[in-house]
Design brief:
The chain has 3 domains: 62 residues, Alpha-Beta Plaits (2-Layer Sandwich), CATH 3.30.70; 68 residues, 2-Layer Sandwich (GMP Synthetase, Chain A, domain 3), CATH 3.30.300; 186 residues, Vaccinia Virus protein VP39 (Rossmann fold), CATH 3.40.50. The protein starts with a strand and ends with a strand. Strand 12, helix 7 and strand 13 form a beta-alpha-beta unit. The strands form 4 sheets. The protein has a 7-stranded mixed β-sheet with strand order 13-12-11-14-15-17-16. The protein has a 4-stranded antiparallel β-sheet with strand order 2-3-1-4. It is of the alpha/beta class. Keywords: Cytoplasm, Methyltransferase, S-adenosyl-L-methionine, Transferase, tRNA processing. GO terms for molecular function: tRNA methyltransferase activity. One of its GO terms (cellular component) is cytoplasm. InterPro entries: MeTrfase_TRM5/TYW2, SAM-dependent_MTases_sf, TRM5-TYW2-like_MTfase, TRM5/TYW2-like_N, Trm5a/b_N. This is Class I SAM-dependent methyltransferase family protein.
Length: 348
């Protein structure tokens, strides 16, 4: 049976394999193979793989050997453990210390490419939305995470980051710079195609999971966050991805920054569910004559979009025509609660 594969030169093989693995795009049912000085990496979603590693690689259909079964943590336990992958770290959420230890040992003994295991030791808390972690294996809480061709260094104990939102971030990033641009489609300079002067503003930028792909697609970006550690990582990640010339990182409350960028933004990200409505006045200050707003909210399933839409209209309709272009459910957040996004066009 022929399967889709990324064909890449061996010298780029490990970097390409790592990018595809972090985006969960490698087809684990088949072996990575080498033939005629080319490396063939089987993938589950050809288009997503192209976007993750760049248009300069070739997607081909070919026969590759089926993979012998790999040892998983579940194979070593009497149950199927729940964990998340973030780079070479595994994140678990266990109150029972013996169960946490057993899961950690099984993860390390399995064939997963994991070096660090962290157990959630608190809820997300405080103004900077960080949590405590119990380090069960590995050296520290700093990890390197890759998604859709972008690389992020971050310390989970110092900043907020959710790997579960990778698909949502990619959905929004694809809207930057038109349909032809892709986050991982790099020019010879290593920087993405220009987005015709688009100005993008992330009001709660964190380590840059929206800002970096926007900038790689050519947008001029401003990212603001009240957490100084997040801003330091944002600057580092801009450098790692070759877009530092298009990223301005500001450590401050965005409500104090907005006036400095009045009428500046063509695109605004408001990813602060539960309290984004408190910042809509600043968003209106930032918005230019024709601006797209990505507004995130968490609401009851009976009316997940209504409260956000009403808040946006109340804040903006005195100055703008407000058009909701898309009502998108990101994920289930809790029983009967949904994490949603409103993509809204503001036209003065």
């Amino acid at each position: 049976m022929e399967v889709p594969c990324v064909r890449v030169a061996p010298e780029r093989g490990e970097a390409t394999r790592s990018t595809l693995a972090d985006a969960n795009l490698i087809d684990d049912g088949y072996e990575i193979s080498v033939e005629d000085n080319w490396l063939y990496i089987p993938v589950t979603a050809p288009q997503a793989a192209r976007e993750a590693v760049g248009d300069d690689v070739e997607i081909v259909s070919r026969r590759v050997p089926e993979r012998e079964s790999q040892t998983t943590p579940a194979d070593l336990l009497a149950f199927d453990p729940t964990y998340e992958r973030l780079g070479k770290a595994a994140l678990i959420d266990e109150d029972d210390s013996e169960r946490a230890r057993a899961i950690t040992d099984a993860i390390l003994e399995s064939d997963l490419p994991v070096e660090t295991v962290l157990n959630k030791a608190s809820k997300v808390k405080g103004e900077t939305r960080v949590r405590d972690w119990e380090l069960l294996a590995g050296e520290d809480t700093e990890v390197v995470h890759r998604e859709y061709g972008c690389e992020f260094l971050l310390d989970l104990a110092e900043v907020y980051f959710s790997p579960r939102l990778a698909t949502e971030r990619h959905r929004v990033a694809e809207q930057v710079g038109g349909s032809e641009a892709h986050c991982a489609s790099e020019t010879a300079s290593g920087q993405g195609p220009r987005a015709a002067g688009e100005h993008a503003f992330d009001m709660f930028a964190g380590v840059g999971p929206f800002v970096i792909p926007f900038a790689k697609r050519g947008a001029e970006c401003v990212g603001v966050d009240i957490n100084p550690d997040a801003i330091e990582y944002l600057r580092e990640n801009a450098h790692r991805n070759g877009v530092e010339d298009r990223v301005t990182a500001i450590n401050d409350d965005v409500r104090d920054v907005a006036i400095d960028y009045e009428d500046w933004a063509d695109r605004i990200v408001m990813n602060l569910p539960h309290s984004a409505d408190e910042f809509l006045e600043s968003a209106v200050t930032l918005a230019g004559d024709d601006c797209t707003l990505h507004y995130y909210d968490i609401q009851h399933e009976d009316d997940p979009f209504g409260p956000g839409e009403r808040a946006i209209r109340a804040a903006a309709e005195s100055e703008y025509d407000v058009t909701v272009k898309n009502r998108h459910t990101v994920r289930s957040y809790a029983p009967h609660e949904l994490n949603v996004c409103l993509d809204v066009r503001l036209e003065r």
